[in-house]
Amino acid sequence: MTEMFNPKANLVFCRKYQENLPKMPNPPFPNAKGEEIQNTVSKKAWDEWLELQTMLINEKHLSMVDKDAKKFIAEQRELFLDNGDYERPAGFKPKDI
To answer: What percent of the chain is helix, strand and coil (3-state, nearest 5)?
Structure first.
């Protein structure tokens, strides 16, 4: 029996953009939080988060072995993905939706 291609299987209702968008092929973390993010965040939103995360780490000279830096990034990630008031690096302009 041949399995039919289901385009909806590759979509997720993105909590950031509030619409069905292509999902990430794999969870971003190897734990329950990673699975939750994969099931609620689109690839587009995650890629934008990674870009912002890199800017925050660089601008604030964060060390990701530091517990407080990890906590800060995790908090900012949740704010960004939930359209909260996240920290923006100097000169940061969000991409057009």
So the answer is: 45, 10, 45
